[in-house]
Amino acid sequence: MLLCTGTLYKLNLQSLEYRILVADLILTYKIIFGLTDIDLNVYFRLKGPENARIRGNPYKIVVNQCRLNVRKTF
Description:
Blueprint: H1 5-10, H2 16-32, H3 40-43, E1 44-47, E2 60-63, H4 69-72
Antiparallel strand pairs: 1-2
């Protein structure tokens, strides 16, 4: 059963795309602060305050370069 935008609004629900985005952000937060058993360096690295050219917070995320096209397009 597909729900249109009006039905989602009436039921006070978020779209699936929004819920997936929120879940991804929560998982990223947990990985960065060590709240899961997932290794941070497997997926990305942090560009911290050791680089003087970066402004803002020390949690700048840099995605690791991939060697295989399979991982790049996943």
